[in-house]
Amino acid sequence: MHQVNVIPYLTTKNLNPENQESPIHFLSKWKTPEEYFYLRNHFSYPHFYDMHFGLMVDGLVSNTTFISYRNILSMKSKSIVVPLECAGNKRSKFVPKVYGEQWEEGAISQGKWRGISLRDLLSPLHISPTAKEIVFIGKDFGKRTDMLGLFYYARSLPISKALDPDTLIAYEYNDKPITFKHGFPLRLIVPSWYAMASVKWLQWIVVIDHEFNGPFQNVDYVYYPNKETDKGKFPVTVLIVNSTIQKPLDFEILDTGKHVITGIAWTGKGTIKKVEISTDNGKTWNTVFIKYLSNESYSWVRWSYEWEVKNKGEYTIKSRATDSEGRVQPEEPFWNRKGYGYNAVSSVTVKVE
């Protein structure tokens, strides 16, 4: 029989702004091809009125400086494989439901980013010892539903994270220039943090001595544990330990015999140390085989488990990851009213006939 190659597609959640999920269940490579990398936007795509690309660095530095794209390309570079996960990934699974883009499990992708360490870029500019945060401003802007006026997408990092040697000003993805939809010409890459920190279309960096107060910092990307009040709120930052079952698919029909259950797991602190599988809705658990990407400390892991099923019926399969910091995926997620950081055990139900 002639084999037909079937190509997956992104799953559209919104067109303006464009938000699309990666076909995560059908991707088996360490590096997500650019055309399958998920898209998350707050505004329409920015316009470029000239080709004079580069970065303006301002604030508590020795001199306000414009660094051209060409100069950045000439500097010493480094490459790291980093997964980027939208903080709202799996939002559709919260109970009770929360408002916002109803992401399933595909608001996460991974690839190799090349660029210059932000620390190296800023070192010659002599940051003031009173500096507390660094603000990153993209070219994308627009209106919000909850505030008057126009806003650029802007986020800050504490000095310690901004000057981590692996925080990059990236210009390549998977050995090619970053595409326009993913932040060309320059994108901030912040390993271990949710992807809202990795500002696209980066145009302006400002060093400040106080806490940044932009709406994408202190209104959005904040955990609100209470439905009616802001009591107990705290910022979204580091990735929470998580996993996704890629195969089999939810509500797939299988035959009896052997099946390989596969998936990925990731964390923002330490490394994934263990992944467990249950094929009886959490009554018993088995440790699975984990494969790591060599010499890449931020990469997700791939895992697999051979399941032999002899009896027909319905089965609920669950995956549960544990990281080196002792964090374990919970049975129930931490509910918060904006729907960030869903990391309850991954679950699919299958029928064996």
Automatic annotation (TrEMBL):
Pfam families: Mo-co_dimer, Oxidored_molyb. Its cofactor is Mo-molybdopterin. Residues 237-351 form the Moybdenum cofactor oxidoreductase dimerisation domain. Residues 44-215 form the Oxidoreductase molybdopterin-binding domain. CDD domains: SO_family_Moco_dimer. Keywords: Metal-binding, Molybdenum, Oxidoreductase. InterPro entries: Ig_E-set, MoCF_OxRdtse_dimer, Mopterin_OxRdtase_euk, OxRdtase_Mopterin-bd_dom, OxRdtase_Mopterin-bd_sf. This is Sulfite oxidase.
